[in-house]
Write a structure and sequence with these properties.
Helix content is 21%, strand content 26%. The protein contains six helices and 13 strands. The strands form three sheets. A six-stranded mixed β-sheet has the order 5-6-9-10-12-11, covered by helices on one side. A five-stranded mixed β-sheet has the order 4-3-2-1-13, covered by helices on one side. Strands 7-8 form a two-stranded parallel sheet. The longest helix has 11 residues.
């Protein structure tokens, strides 16, 4: 299985007429935030593959369509807009879990075939009370609300999760020390408890592409998806 991960930057290698040819063998697309949803739409239209996205802490003009209790701030769509006219080709994964049944994987722990299991979390650590920003406590509460479905996955498939898609990184993994770019401590708890094969994040820009973008921790591979990164699983779509 080949997975195209994107975040934070409209990559000209993708946003062009040759994208379908360049990425013809992609099976899944994961968008880790801070991307215009028009870009997500383009990827869905051109590649025609299952595409999941979350919000970061920028590019939030469509945020309230997915979070009905969001307060209007400059740059967001007005609440009186007809929501029935709104839609995007990607599937919103913010604070949700999904079974992607079009992609069959072999679980390395059980040897059984099953759907690909995904979950996601939008936003960054709170730094100016803007939309899609959360305190540590708020984020952990949102993760806790996902636990019943994760337990159901464990009972049904023998594993909680394959991929956790986030915008911010786990604390002390690829993050920075300024408040805006610190990672979430609760993501480390989530990794330890639910053991996803991959955690895909954005938020941390890689101005020097020699910077570290892949870290292994407790059996989870943490990947910074800035611009774009391709994951290719080994064997028979094994997770």
């Amino acid at each position: 299985m080949k997975i195209l991960c994107v975040s934070d930057f409209v990559d000209p290698l993708i946003y062009n007429q040759e994208a379908k040819k360049t990425f013809s063998d992609i099976d899944l697309v994961l968008c880790a935030g801070d991307l215009p949803l028009e870009y997500v739409d383009f990827i869905v239209t051109v590649l025609n593959k299952p595409t999941y996205f979350i919000f970061g802490n920028h590019n939030l003009k469509d945020y309230e369509f997915y979070h009905k209790n969001a307060q209007n701030i400059p740059g967001t769509m007005p609440s009186q807009k007809d929501n029935s006219l709104f839609g995007h080709g990607g599937t919103y994964l913010g604070f949700k879990t999904f079974e992607e049944r079009s992609l069959t994987v072999t679980d390395s722990r059980t040897g059984k075939k099953r759907p690909l299991l995904l979950a996601g979390a939008s936003g960054s650590l709170r730094y100016n009370k803007g939309l899609s920003q959360y305190t540590e406590f708020e984020m952990k509460m949102k993760l806790i609300l996902m636990i019943p479905k994760l337990i159901k996955n464990k009972i049904k498939y023998g594993t909680y999760l394959d991929i956790f898609l986030t915008h911010a990184s786990p604390r002390h993994i690829h993050d920075k020390e300024d408040i805006c770019h610190r990672g979430f401590e609760c993501y480390n708890w989530f990794i330890k408890k639910f053991k996803p094969k991959y955690l895909i994040h954005g938020h941390i820009h890689l101005y020097d592409m020699r910077e570290k973008r892949i870290t292994e921790i407790q059996g989870t591979t943490v990947i910074n998806a800035y611009a774009h990164h391709i994951i290719e699983t080994e064997g028979n779509n094994e997770f």
